[in-house]
Amino acid sequence: MTAIRIAAVIAAAAVSLTAPAAVSAQEVGNTSASVAWNDLDVTTPSGAAQLDQRINTAARRACRGVRATGTNMSQTAFCRSQIRQTVLSRMDETTRQAYGRASTEARVSARADRA
């Protein structure tokens, strides 16, 4: 996928707001993915972990096969990051900060469980 197609994915994610607590991202082509969080309490570790999982799932679908122009190097991580930022930009500041704390707590707890 070229840089233009990457930009198209990011632009689609940025302008496809479907509700205050949902973002849709559409890849150039037929694939689309939606991220909703209105049914989650993203200020708790479990709610934040569920939102993280939804973002990752949607990003995997929308960013599949993204490549840098002229190389075989994957730009999927960049694409995923842009979709995550689009979702976070739709949250109010207080919710975004609480989500950040809860998401960090969920990741730390998951690591401790694996150890």
What does this protein look like?
The chain has 115 residues and is mostly helical. Helices cover 59% and strands 11% of the residues. It has helices at residues 3-15, 45-63, 76-89, 93-114, and strands at residues 17-19, 22-26, 32-36. A 3-stranded antiparallel β-sheet has the order 1-2-3. Strand 2 and strand 3 (32-36) form a beta hairpin. It is globular and about 40 Å long.
Which terms summarize this structure?
three-stranded antiparallel β-sheet, 115 residues, mainly alpha
Helical percentage: 55-70%
Low-confidence stretches: 1-5, 14-20, 22-31
- How big is the Rg? 15 Å
The beta-strand count equals 3
Short description:
With 115 residues, the chain is mainly α. It contains four helices and three strands, in the order H-E-E-E-H-H-H.
Chain-wise SSE layout:
Blueprint lengths: L2 H13 L1 E3 L2 E5 L5 E5 L8 H19 L12 H14 L3 H22 L1
Antiparallel strand pairs: 1-2, 2-3
